[in-house]
What does this fold into?
Amino acid sequence: MSKHTLEELVGRLRKKLKSTHGEIAEGAIKSVWGVGYQLCITIVLK
It folds into this structure.
């Protein structure tokens, strides 16, 4: 998987989280330099 593909997928995921969780999801996924990405919200599964 290329870097561009990964960034595009994360962008799509951020957009979906924002549409379902509103402003709470604004900083839901953070970039961690040298490591990858970090999910920073609580997810409740029903």
